[in-house]
Amino acid sequence: MTASQAAQADNGDWLVGNPTGLQLASALWIGSVGLLILGLQPVLLGALYAEGHVTGDELALVATAEMIAIAIGSAIVAMLLPARNMRWKSAALLVLLALANFWTAYAGSANALIGARTLAGLAEGGLVAVATELIARSRRAERIGGYFVTLQTLAQCALALILALYAVPRAGSAGGFIALGIVCLLSLAVAWTVPDDYADLPKEEQFANVATVPAITALLSIFCYFMFFGAVWAFLEPIGAQFGIDGRTVGLMVSASLAAQVIGAMTATVFEARIDYRFAITVIGMVAAISSALLASGPGLSVFWVVALVMGFILLFIVPYQIRLAITADETRTAALLVPAAQLFGLAIGPIAASLLIDGANFRSVPEFAAATALASVLLLGVFVLVARRHGKA
């Protein structure tokens, strides 16, 4: 047995390094804090709008700016900064995010809100990279990724409930963002239990690994899938209103869909090793397209409910398989580090692109656009499979 083989045997489930269970859980929690806003936006941004701090257009800009900033922040930390001194980096990012949340609570204009949420997004993206950097070093990255999305969604559900029932009714949107800042500060205790230095992955030029047809095609497939969800989710309430479903009912659907996301993430964690990633991504993409088509057809209340729950379930069920897709495209796992960026860019660009197709009060074009992007995700997977076979990756 060579020295490298012995090292691999010692590492067990890890390509490099050998973090303890506590260190892994801590890194996943730090990353989850960075994505709490994904489940809290309907509550917090809805409160900002209801209080008159922003118009509908300004609200869209605030949400989009934060999503894009998260994607940029995660890509910068994953691609440009070495995985060293992760405890100090985690602590600094948590403090920065807490300050951005406090700034948001007291921002006096739409421009200040956009600035605050952009700063928050950059810090959140960095926190996400703390988790994804460690996930990429696991031999079972798909399973750890399933744990990650399960943890973050459970945290989103719990905090959304606390904010909706206590913080926001008593202190408005400011109370909600202050509570989010307090969560960041409390998480400083966890920051000191993440691995301080992540062992280097065996790779050469990072950007060269990503700038290949298989890697680009894989990331575009992920991007298109999340465009589907971002488009539908942003306009779910006006789509429902167009077909006679009131906003309160749609709000209940959003809460139920978050619960479905938890179930989807947990189910994927159990079954990820038993289902081929190509089959899973294809089937889920087709389900996404059919669900979007049903929304465009003018559904009744029961069908609308079913579609909302199905979309929630498949959103996170697909994530472990997308991680496997990225790892297959680039065995150095550099592309896997960019999966969160591809997902978040899709969530951010989806609503903007769909909004260009809206005709007055007719929102039917939004789910039609979502169906097209879901199908595009499947087609790009097909292109990936063909290209990967030529490169010996499939």
UniProtKB/TrEMBL annotation:
Gene3D superfamilies: MFS general substrate transporter like domains. Its main location: membrane. SUPFAM superfamilies: MFS general substrate transporter. It comes from the Bacteria. It is found in: Cell membrane. Keywords: Cell membrane, Membrane, Transmembrane, Transmembrane helix. It is a multi-pass membrane protein. The chain crosses the membrane at residues 27-49, 61-83, 90-108, 114-135, 147-168, 174-195, 207-236, 248-270, 277-296, 302-323, 335-357, 369-388. Residues 210-394 form the Major facilitator superfamily (MFS) profile domain. The keyword Transmembrane helix applies. PANTHER family: CHLORAMPHENICOL EFFLUX PUMP RV0191, PURINE EFFLUX PUMP PBUE. This is MFS transporter. It comes from Mesorhizobium vachelliae. The lineage of its organism: Bacteria, Pseudomonadati, Pseudomonadota, Alphaproteobacteria, Hyphomicrobiales.
